[in-house]
Design a protein that fits this description.
- The chain is 35% helix and 9% strand.
- By secondary structure, it is α+β, with helices and mostly antiparallel strands.
- The chain folds into 3 domains: 62 residues, no CATH class; 38 residues; 45 residues, no CATH class.
- A 5-stranded antiparallel sheet has the order 1-5-4-3-2.
- The protein is elongated, with a radius of gyration of 31 Å.
- It binds zinc ion (ZN).
- This is DUF397 domain-containing protein.
- It comes from Jiangella ureilytica.
- InterPro entries: DUF397 (IPR007278).
């Protein structure tokens, strides 16, 4: 046959060498592919070798395989389109917060660089920026107080219900502050308790 069109009977494709995934079962329940002389790829169901073959371009196959590798078809029964993975460094729908974090990070890096210069004294502008950053951290620390039971004032109320939108678990703000400041600076100091040893005098 001269042209191989979509839906052609698979067994009618001359010299087609069909192959399947090593993950395919031995019972013949397989998706099979065969390269065609035109540079396209035929796909058939091994249970119906005389059934129709669908013809795809290499780009189309690559797009599908890449999506499969990315896990987009892990649930073959899913009806929702796969989520669009953001390109590295691309703005995400909720990029407001990460973008802000990046800006703060850049600012801190710049200020740190100036401080590490040693004999460089921070100018008024830089000092103000540093104070603003520290104020922001202090504000966050005040807002996201975590008590001994792990309840955050903001993220988790005393009713023990997490606010909608906050991930269940440890308060993320508290966790982030702990990473940079250390637990001792973010955890309220425990009330001083008398130990048994000191009470022995009585
Ligand atoms: Zn919190």
């Amino acid at each position: 046959m001269d042209t191989i069109v979509n839906g052609v009977t698979a067994s009618d494709i001359p010299h087609a060498v069909w192959r399947k995934s090593s993950k395919s079962g031995a019972q013949g329940n397989c998706v099979e592919v065969a390269p065609l002389p035109t540079g396209t790829i035929a796909v058939r169901n091994s249970r119906h070798p005389d059934g129709p073959a669908l013809i795809f371009t290499q780009d189309e196959m690559t797009a599908f395989v890449d999506g499969a590798k990315a896990g987009e078809f892990d649930d073959p029964l899913a009806t929702e389109p796969p989520p669009v993975a953001p390109a590295p460094g691309a703005a995400t729908p909720d990029s407001g917060t990460p973008a802000r974090y990046r800006a703060i990070g850049n600012e801190l890096e710049s200020l740190t660089g100036q401080l590490l210069e040693g004999d460089t004294v921070l100018d008024r502008d830089s000092s103000e920026r540093l104070l603003r950053l520290l104020s922001g951290v202090a504000q966050l620390q005040q807002l996201h107080r975590v008590d001994a039971d792990g309840n955050c004032t903001i993220c988790r109320t005393k009713s023990r219900r997490w606010h909608p939108g906050s991930r269940q678990g440890e308060c993320s703000v508290h966790a982030a502050l702990s990473t940079y400041l250390g637990r001792s600076l973010t955890t309220p100091a425990a009330p001083v308790q008398r130990t048994g040893a000191t009470r022995r005098s009585g």
